[in-house]
Input
Amino acid sequence: MPGLPGGKPAGMPCLHLDEALRCKLFGLPERPAVCGSLQPSAEMCGENREQAMLFLSHLESATRP
Output
């Protein structure tokens, strides 16, 4: 499965998600290290998907080069 050299644009879903938004690379050596290093937390996940996506959007903005 090819990836995006240099990462993906903010707001773009990962190319490696299935229809249920689950990672198709989970447990495989091809899975990017950054994915394994991002550990979920109550703060990150929030109460629902909308809150989780808002948190991730803020995280992407704060870490943008």
Q: What stands out?
A: Helices lie at 33-37, 42-45, 49-62.
